[in-house]
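Field reference: sequence -> structure
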Amino acid sequence: MDEKELEKIADRERERAEEEFARMQKELRAKHEQLGVQQRALTEKAMNENLDEHSAKRSTVWIFAILTVILIGSYFSLIVYKPKANYQKAAEYLQNGRYDDAKVIYTKLGDYEDSVELRKECDYLKGCAMLDEERYNQALSAFANVKGYRDRDAIVSALAGGFIQSLDTGKVHSVFVRSVGTVKAVGENVNNCCNVENWRNIKSIACGSDFTVGLVENGSVIATNTAVDWNDIKQITAGDSFFAGLDGSGKVHFYGAEAEMENIKAISACGNNFAAINNDGGVVVSGSAVDNAVWKDIEEISVTDTDVYGLKKDGTIVSTNGRLSELQNVRCIFAVMNTIIAMDNDNKIFAEGEQNAGAFKDMLMVAGNGEHALVLRDDGYVNFLGKNENGCGNVSDWSDVKLVLK
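Structure field:
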């Protein structure tokens, strides 16, 4: 083979090699482009996956933050804002005289701010408001919750002795008038003395040994086992076996006793004893006049079975036995169980006789006879003094005793 043929063969092999090289380059470029696309896809996917994870993390963070804000807001609402709003609402109620509504909110607030103290203020202001409206039972109910608060004790004590007698006790029974004018009796029902459940519109009560007398709002009088035709009666009282009524003209009517009295302004009876104050301030005892030099300017009268006590206009006490005659500035007196009880203008209680002053602590009204006594306390409940025979002392659940100013 000559040189030319060898050159031709070399040229063909070179062309083929070049073509093969070009083809391989093309394939490589194609592979590179394919790998690039795959790489970009993979990269993009990876990036997307990373972005999703990051977004999820960011979303979780935001959700947690939002929940935290909600929880903080709820806490603020429950712990700070809501109590504050309720506190302000209670203050508004208190200012507008809605004392019960205000007290309910202050109670729910517990010890928030000064809610405990303001609960007392609700009862105190309600008590004062009820006094202004002469709703004495409601006033006592409110004041009972705040004993010792501000001037509550002085306000309540000032009411002592100022009410018509609405409870009493006899030898075998005890009776009281409810604020609505109905009557309750306990004890032994001797001679129907406890048959008072059907009485209505009663404002005052008196008990004998075995009978009960009631003063009706219209001025008439009702009694157990006895028909009484009295009218315009202002006050009633009872001894063991008789009772009396003072009418608007100053005349005293008696049942079970023979007596005539006129120009009288107050009466009192116990056992077989009876006393009355004349319009001029003198006193008549069991129908006989007493020493006018001593018994003058009498404002109140109270008797036991054996003694008579009078409260003078100057605040001193005159009596048939000289008890408590040294006291000054006395505001009211009661006499039961052979004892004289007095309260002065400083609301201090004194007693001399069979009972001591402690038995009459927090008294508003005292009634009774030689053997038993009932004490209406300033919280509206009643104490019994004496031997609880025949169940006449079963008064521990008594409350809501009718209160009418004299």
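Note: The longest helix spans residues 3-95.
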